[in-house]
Design goal:
Elements (H helix, E strand, L loop, with lengths): L3 E13 L5 E2 L13 E6 L2 H10 L3 E2 L17 E6 L17 E5 L2 E5 L12 E13 L8 E12 L2 H7 L2
Parallel strand pairs: 5-9
Antiparallel strand pairs: 1-3, 1-8, 2-3, 3-5, 4-5, 6-7, 8-9
Length: 167
């Protein structure tokens, strides 16, 4: 029998992945055949080792040849699933769905299943993430953390957007 152990993870000023490491829309791709909503949390070495010891499926960078003798700046990361529906496809009640909000210019906007896709292309800074979920004790090496609640608060860095699109 697959034993599930409840867990809570809170990270302040987390670095949320970008590009293929962020898929709030659930777009099907080479790395996401099932169309699951997810994002990566980049971790410092100490946090990654702690979570790995607790049974989380931390992804570690593979060693690579360094032709220029520069330090490897790649970080370990943890994939987090964002689920608005149960496995049978039934929509979760509002008190069980992920709570995701974005703070921008002093205004807080909440995102739901229909609007969360907008976070895919924003550069998020100062993100606080709280995850309530379960770790599979039997399949810890092969499974990611399945979340019941994700609370994401962030600010948007628009400096690049303004330089590029506003004249």
């Amino acid at each position: 029998m697959n034993k599930l152990e409840p867990c809570v993870v809170e990270l302040k000023d987390a670095n949320v992945g970008y590009g293929r490491f962020r898929n709030f829309s659930g777009q099907i791709s080479e790395f996401n055949q099932n169309g699951e909503r997810s994002f990566a949390l980049w971790l410092d070495q100490e946090t990654a080792e702690f979570l790995d010891e607790k049974g989380f499926n931390v992804k570690w960078p593979k060693p690579m040849e360094n032709k220029f003798d520069e330090p490897d700046k790649r970080s370990p990361f943890l994939m987090v699933k964002v689920r608005y529906r149960y496995a049978n496809g039934e929509l979760k009640p509002a008190d069980r769905a992920p709570y995701i909000s974005l703070l921008f210019d002093g205004d807080r906007k909440e995102y739901d299943e229909l609007t969360v896709h907008a976070l895919d292309n924003l550069r998020l800074i100062n993100c606080d993430v709280k995850i309530n979920g379960y770790i599979s004790k039997r399949f810890a090496q092969n499974s990611t953390l399945v979340c019941e609640l994700v609370s994401l608060v962030g600010e948007v860095d628009t400096s690049n957007y303004v330089k590029t699109y506003v004249r």
